[in-house]
Structure formats: C-alpha cells, structure tokens
Amino acid sequence: MPCQHIMASPLGLPAAFPFFCIKPEQNEKIVRKFYPEEYGPVKNVDPIGNSPVIIKKDLLEKIAPTWMNVSMKMKDDPETDKSFGWVLEMYAYAVASALHAPWDLDIGKKFIIHYTYGCDYNMKGELTYGKIGEWRFDKRSFLRGPPPKNLPMPPPGVPESVVTLVKMVNEATANIPNWETE
Predict the structure, then answer these.
(1) Where does the record place the Hydroxyproline O-arabinosyltransferase-like domain (predicted)?
(2) Are 138 and 156 in contact (CB under 8 A)?
C-alpha cells in the first residue's frame, strides 16, 4: 500500500499518530515489565506506534537501539507476545519513546494526517463508522487508478483533518502536470 501519511504543517519537535489499539494504561501489568516505575506513570507511554512518526534523525538514533531491545524482550516474553500480538512492535516503540521522552506533549494543531481508514460521513457531517457514507473519501476507491481532480469537499461538520486531506489531494492533483493522463 502506498504512503498513507500527509504532513499537514511544518514540524519542529517529533510527532506521532495516536492509535486506538495501543492502550498502555489498560495493559499496565505488561507495560511495567519494560517501563520501570522510576520513569513515572504508565500514562507517560503514549498510545503511538512506529508509523507514522516524524522525528529528527539524531533522536531516532537514540531511540532505535532501545526500541530493538524492548521489541526483542517483548517477543521473548510469552505473556507479552500473546497479549500484544501484531501490535507488539508498536508497543515497543511507544515504550522506547517514553524511556527517552523526546515528545512535545503540547503540540496544539495536528501535524500528521493518517488516512488508513475510509472517511465516511452523512450529509450532516456525522461519521458513519462501519458503513459507506453519503460522502466518502477512501484511498481504496482508487486502487485501479489515481483519484480525479477536484474531489468534492466533505459536508459541513466533518473534522478539519478530513477537510485538509481533501484540500491537499485536490491541490496536488491540480498541480501535477498531465494528471488526468497518468
């Protein structure tokens, strides 16, 4: 699958996408095996994974060895491996990041738009989670070819991130030469 992250604005400090499937506080007993109490409460382990992350190379160089070691320790621990399953690497990254604490916890505006899931809304701007909406943007709709120019804008009431995503796609398609023939 092609890249599914769009930079929405310039970034100075690291930023990462919060995932609903990463729940350090709900898994405190397991997380504590790798995130000792002297580092603070488990809530300091952000619900992030290793992608999407925007981080400077020097900070990643500090985190990467810890991430690898935590990943291997988690994989070697049967309880952790079974509990975390396919998100084990994401938990390992979250723990490694918390151990190094490079994040700005007050970043204000969002910097990354992660469009893995379809954006489905009714015309009132309400999310129609789990079913195709009256208004829709889903990258999977364009598996056989690129999206057309001038995608319709979402209805009023949808999150600003969805509006920004569609604006950015429209801006890109308007400015890429020969887009319709690609």
Answers:
(1) 13-180
(2) no
Nearest-angstrom CA–CA distance, 46 and 36: 15
Alpha helices in 18-159 (DSSP H): 28-31, 57-76, 78-84, 88-100
3-state DSSP assignment of residue 138: coil
CA 57 to each of CA 61, 63, 105, 113: distance values in angstroms, whole numbers, following the listed order: 6, 10, 19, 21
Tell me the pTM.
0.57
Q: What is the pLDDT of residue 107?
A: 38
Tokens 């690497």, residue?
Answer: 89
Listed in sequence order, the residues at least 6 apart from 50 whose beta carbon sits closer than 8 Å to its beta carbon are 67, 89, 90, 93
